[in-house]
Model the fold of this input.
Amino acid sequence: KNMTSAELRQAFLEYFQSQGHQIVDSSSLIPANDPTLMFTNAGMVQFKDVFLGDDKRSYNRATTSQRCVRAGGKHNDLENVGYTARHHTFFEMLGNFSFGDYFKRDAIRFAWTFLTEVLELPKEKLWITVHISDDEAEKIWKEEIGVDPQRFSKLDEDNFWSMGDTGPCGPSTEIFFDHGEEIWGGPPGSPEEDGDRYIEIWNLVFMQFNRDASGTMDPLPNPSIDTGMGLERIAAVLQGVHSNYEIDLFQNLLKAAAKAVGSAETDNKSLRVIADHIRSCSFLICDGVIPSNEGAGYVLRRIIRRAVRYGNKLGATGPFFNQLVAALAQEMGQAYPELIEKQAQVERILLKEEEQFAKTLDHGLRLLEDAISGLKGTEIPGETVFKLYDTYGFPVDLTADVAREQELSVDMAGFEKAMEDQRNRARAAGKFNVDYNDSIRLDSETAFSGYEQLSGDAKVV
Ligand code: ATP
Ligand code: MG
Ligand code: MG
Ligand code: MG
Done:
């Protein structure tokens, strides 16, 4: 079946409504009253307290299409964007939830029925994983659903989901779609699983525990269900394309990006990054985030600067990023009217950021190029990374991204040391600028986790 993203969102919500679920609006990207989480990174976030038993709703089954950002914290995909076919910084997660109502059997049956009967996906292209310890889910899949054991495996960490370091968590079962042998990659659990042939489309979490700060897992009052399916990933499957960036929703964004930077091409890695980033940046601003030097505001600033650098790479000569808000409002304003209401405000904030970074971007890039051409090994010295950060406003992940394009790495330890030295100098000079030190610490932490990601999750398309 071919469906637009909008039709798919609707079909999902309606199917679960017909199975007794209450349709609930997406919550904000900024979690309400949750200091453990910077951004809403999954559909379950707005229901966290319901899972924990601290909140009660008038319904015990819910379904949502939740806007999510994964750019920092436990689930950070910023460095994957542009490198994989399946990751965005902003995406919509379709989900169905049971609060102490149905459990494994019905969750699996709903998912399978929706995929194979409502969407009519061929069963032989679907691959299943469950947690290594979960004989119950294995039995349901094999004996009740009748899934072919050849397309079934039991895995460890990949099948245990948690929202963050603390909070609700539990074993999961995941459904993958095989995009065909012309694409590199192996089935889940194989050495080539990070390729993009077998793409995870749906994760069903059997919410059973609450993990505390010490790592102890206490059983939840009621075993519950939390599922998440990326709208863009399932849209790609239905529209017969491999990459999320080829679906309907991205076509006009890519065109607008090409036009704004003056590029003759209408699809390449840089344009995809820009098309992705305009979504996260616009939605974050709509939800009240303002670019700044710390916390959520600094993550927003990093994403904007990353987009601006890619535009520069494509030859943009002036501010361009803010011009994409109109295309986004056109594309998604029906589902999210705030995009239209706040369009002018979002444009203004982006324009200001672009203008500010434009002042140092060229100089910084030149410094970086010089440093690279004079390089002996394959690692950019921490001192250089620090100078770019401190003088030119280059977030560390931006420098790391330039390095990665040339198959170089950055000396993170050296960067940390340069930062520490500067902090000590400031202290010795008797300056106790709390804000300043705070923002630096935050930056180095987020940058560091991003750096680890570089060598891990992200693989070339
Ligand atoms: P992956 O292994 O591909 O990174 P994940 O296991 O981290 O995905 P989950 O935390 O299980 O993802 O989230 C549930 C679903 O949300 C995924 O099955 C996928 O369809 C979708 N999803 C997750 N991360 C992204 C992303 N960065 N961009 C688009 N969709 C995503
Ligand atoms: Mg992931
Ligand atoms: Mg996964
Ligand atoms: Mg998953």
Summary: The chain has 15 helices and eleven strands.
